[in-house]
Amino acid sequence: MDSIYVNPAAKTWEARASTDLNLLVQSFHEKLPGFGVSPLVPMAELARDLGVKAVFVKDESSRLGLPAFKILGASWGAFRAIADLADNLSLDSSLEEVSRAVRRLGLSLYAATDGNHGRAVARMARILGVAASIYVPAFTDVHVQRNIEAEGAKVTVVPGNYDDAVAVANAESRKVSGGLHVQDNAFDDYEKVPGYIIEGYSTLLREVEQQLEQQGLKATAMVTPIGVGSLGHAVTAYCKSSGRQIDVVAVEPETAACLHDNLRSGEFRSIETSKTIMDGMNCGTVSHISWPILRQGVDVSVTICDRECHEAVEQLQKLGVHAGPCGAASLAATKKVAVELKDEHGIRLNGDSVVVLLSTEGSRFYVVPE
């Protein structure tokens, strides 16, 4: 059971959320070129296998033309950071007004990434017509680097891990006039923008709720991948707010399980990580603004190995969802929970359950694990 951690206290924990802000975020995203609601795919066969009422996959394999959900956070985070610097920008500004403000201020965007966040920041820079500099750790797959470069960004490989890349991106952004660091994890003296990025993910969650409502359903459990924890933060706050009591299952690679380690120890700390096919989840430190929310609101934390993840990729692809490893991690975790946990252990997976799996990235190249 070392791969599963249960927090019974999360059942009764409540978070605060701003419906008005979430509406503003969704309205902003709808202005982005090529915006469309991502599909919520029913999985009747999976539901039968798991013995639950319904399973749905929120398929983020083509969000605004990118193979991941990250553009939702990167776009809103960049916009809010720009608005903080431009006094005349309201939160319902047009993209043209934002672009004019960026050029007037002489801004360029900076970020670190080991997956899709950097590509999303690069895309937002391209939309606004400004330069982007993206920093990646040494283990980042070359295909990931090329995809970022294809957005027009300059990619720099940093010796070391993800945390090292974040530190370099932050330092480099401060060396130039107009350097704006758009990062999805918080650290000392850097909390505002990560908070904005978390707000940006509310669009995905509002869509899920609206799509289920159209079928007369409500989610009882939501399964989310964890990297630095920003998406998990958004999911947990949403699932535990406004009268909702949706179980939250968090999943990480066993080689980069920073949240799982912290939950088990009860201590906020960094861990050493190693290579995984779940590149975008290869993070050694939970964002410190997300840690309190995750500690209190995550019902179950699960770790999976690369082989389990690969098998979930294959299963989803057979069912018509072209997920990459980070996306398929949610399915691998759900299967493990279904086998190893029962109702009395703190999560509802039974004939009344409506389970939503967040598939956060589309199909991509990776080296198949032995």
From TrEMBL:
PANTHER family: DIAMINOPROPIONATE AMMONIA-LYASE, PTHR42937. It comes from Cyphellophora europaea (strain CBS 101466) (Phialophora europaea). Gene3D superfamilies: 3.40.50.1100. Transmembrane segments: none annotated. This is Tryptophan synthase beta chain-like PALP domain-containing protein. It holds the Pfam family PALP. Residues 33-358 form the Tryptophan synthase beta chain-like PALP domain. The lineage of its organism: Eukaryota, Fungi, Dikarya, Ascomycota, Pezizomycotina.
